[in-house]
Specification:
Layout: E1 2-7, H1 14-17, H2 23-28, E2 32-37, E3 50-51, E4 61-62, H3 64-78, E5 85-94, H4 97-104, E6 108-112, H5 121-127, E7 130-133, H6 143-154, E8 190-191, E9 200-201, H7 211-229, H8 231-239, H9 245-253
Parallel strand pairs: 1-2, 1-6, 5-6, 5-7
Antiparallel strand pairs: 3-4, 8-9
């Protein structure tokens, strides 16, 4: 799959694409990321890509014409009739795991990273097919959401994670029934006391070797954590018929 990133700051992407486990997806070409500096499509001597908004007000607005030229160049290079164009904005739909899984099996998209007060609305109306947001807060630009999306998509590609089952147990995944992931523990078996904090052992069930008990414990921990922090996910799982009688009995005890 191929992601074309249209941005004023392409240098923000290089470190992410060459470090960490997800670099395997980028270096192998499983997730082909191509960076398009927007200023390359400005035609004045100052390589200007923004101007004051019509109607007055604070801030600057990204100009339509450089964006139009850049998007035309990307589409011509991709050779596709109509690639998906994703714009990152606080007014967009929140990125979730279902959306990530859908994109992870697609042919990719054009990622449009806005800055300043925003992008000329005419460009959005003409070209954008999907608007996405990281959450109910405002960032300085679309680069961080684009990086987050690329990371989430890359880790779902075959061979990227050391264990193919790792992402299947993630929070929000289909195999976890859309619930939050359970807690995880590793060595040492007993974490020594520190200050006023007591020593903390690994839960005994994880040391028992009894796989059925461990599976049940992890499911119950997932249910308890989700009920405490994201009760709407419990409601969604219940509505979709993904909770068993044992799940419901455990939730009733909480």
């Amino acid at each position: 799959m191929r992601f074309d990133v249209l941005t004023i700051f392409p240098e923000l992407f290089a470190p992410h694409l060459t470090h960490g486990v997800t670099r395997r997806a980028f270096e192998s070409g499983q997730v082909d990321v191509r960076l398009w500096p927007l200023r390359d499509f400005a035609e004045d001597n100052y390589r200007r890509v923004d101007d004051r908004p019509y109607g007055g007000g604070p801030g600057m607005v990204m100009l339509a014409e450089p964006l139009e030229r850049a998007l035309a160049a990307i589409k011509a290079d991709r050779g596709e009739t109509a690639p998906a164009v994703i714009h990152f904005t606080p007014t967009g739909a929140r990125i979730n795991q279902a959306r990530v899984q859908q994109l992870a099996t697609s042919s990719g998209a054009v990622l449009l990273c806005g800055r300043y007060e925003g992008i000329d609305q005419r460009v959005l109306d003409r070209h954008v097919t999907l608007e996405l947001s990281l959450g109910d807060f405002v960032l300085s630009g679309g680069e961080l959401p684009a990086l987050a999306l690329l990371d989430a998509v890359a880790r779902l590609q075959e061979g990227v994670l050391g264990d193919a089952q790792s992402h299947q147990q993630d929070s929000f995944s289909e195999t976890s029934d859309g619930l939050l992931d359970c807690p995880h523990y590793s060595r040492p078996e007993l974490l020594p006391a520190m200050g006023d904090q007591p020593e903390r052992p690994v839960p005994p069930v994880l040391l028992s070797g009894h796989h059925a008990d461990i599976k049940r414990w992890r499911r119950e921990q997932s249910l308890a954590l989700t009920a405490a922090r994201r009760p709407e996910l419990i409601a969604a799982a219940r509505a979709a018929g993904r909770l068993s009688k044992a799940d419901e009995a455990f939730l009733a005890k909480l």
